[in-house]
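Recap from last week: sequence in, structure out.
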Amino acid sequence: MTSARPDLRAARWRKSSYSSGDGGECLEVADDLPGRVPVRDSKNPGGPALIVSAAAWGDFVAYVTR
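Predicted structure tokens:
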């Protein structure tokens, strides 16, 4: 099953609260796509974004915050 990649130009990105404050290791996510969570490197906002399911993102966040 193939799904079209969403247009992320208008996405509202936010920096992860777990990103470092010194400008390195900055992860951004967009919360405004139902069922999907785009993730990108904030140092390269024009670069690629990884898009995962909301369920997979929830599992990832639960794992890394234990």
